[in-house]
User: Fold these one by one.
Assistant:
Number 1:
Amino acid sequence: MQKAVAILTMLAGAGACAATQAGPGPVPAWPHLTITGENTPPTSMFVDGKPAGRQTDKVHEMLDRVGVPHSIDILPWKRAYMMAQRDALTCVYSTTRTPEREKQFKWVGPMVEIDWVLMGRADRKFHLRTLEDARTLRIGTYNGDARDEYLKSRGFNVDPVQNDASNPDKLLLNRIDLWAVAARPDLDMARELGRDGQFVPVLVFNRVRLYLACNPTVPDRLVDRMNAMFDTMRRDGTFARIDRRYQDATAEK
């Protein structure tokens, strides 16, 4: 009898030990996220048939580090943006965070800070001190993006296109007076966007931050983890390393 009790006691102890080692159980796997972006080299683009680019690589590495299964697709902006608004577990980059958009998404970032710039032809002289000075001019925009929404909401004379690549040609043909673009403050805008000296920056009219904007169905705990990982990548030099890679590639062209 004493021997049986001893065996039962030993088994119970082993069971308790095993339960203690097992802990509360494995952390649930993160859901699969669909990530959308637009074709705006060198920010996001296809390289050898795969999504790549300055911000694409940041998003991909962040999700890999967090352990989030995901797919990335490069699409026309309006479709990419609408999918993140409409579809569960979908995020879109690089998205300007504005008061009008604030409650539509959960925000991860910022990924980068950019200037909104009015570009003009180098052979025309503009004397713009503020955005208000451009009120009588025709401004080329990209339909549905943040600059287009910003200028439209303030009553400016905008001429939107479905593909932003059309605006430089429109500017050369005098179909628009200015072109509203986004440019990183640390880059030479004349070199990046100037078409060999044909265009020059006329006015910087806003500075904004770009984010990964996620559908509200993305769990808060995952959003917190993604934000924390972006902070880590910013501090450990990953952002700078990725930016430098694409800056060097651009300089070699």
Number 2:
Amino acid sequence: MTGVAAGAYLRRYSQPPAPTTHLVCFPHAGGSAAAYRGWTALLPPSVRLTAIQYSGRQDRMHEVMPASMDELADEVALALSRYADPLLLFGHSFGATVAFEVARRLQRWGPGPVEHLVVSGRPGPRAQPRTAKHLWTDDEIWDDMLRLGGVDRELAGVPTLRELVLPALRRDYLIIETYGPAPDATVCCPITAFLGADDPEVDRGQAEAWARSTTGAFRLRVFEGAHFYLSARPARVVAELMSLTRPTPTPGRD
């Protein structure tokens, strides 16, 4: 633990007086909480929206970044443990694994408040491929991010943006590439996996591997698009998330 204030991780974009759902969003590697700010207008007025702001970016640029997934998940789980209302966790790419580890901790600390975990654009923990992007050169890492669509190409040539993003992106890669789940790592809440049909980083089998990480129900939802499919059709993604807060028929894969 780095001793960072628990509240430093939380960005509250919507705070209704009597929320029926608390949606907590975890950004991708190199990403920030601001990626989810625009979702506020797409959500029902009864939904509280909180996004996680990792250290080392934007208003937390000069803070020390965690050295491991365990350290990061411990700190975020501590920040969220103050909430008694049920949580709907959504994590994209790197954020999917962070959300999973946070859900495990909240579950372990008591009758966990995590009602549903949605993991997007990431292989299940036991299907995570071995990579070493954190050892790549700056040019290689930046080109890979552009390939995946994580940076707007109109902004990609701005030197100051690259200088600001690369340190956090490299550290996030280090955290995810040195992560290994415990052999019995599972959650008891349902897991739904979101996948872009043309995602070059995750195939259907790898997405379905999340089924082994829950003792509850599992669903797979496939969207048009590649790795950052959610940026192209946020309304569709938000609508699908909200459907998970209502009773549904018997779980299945489609």
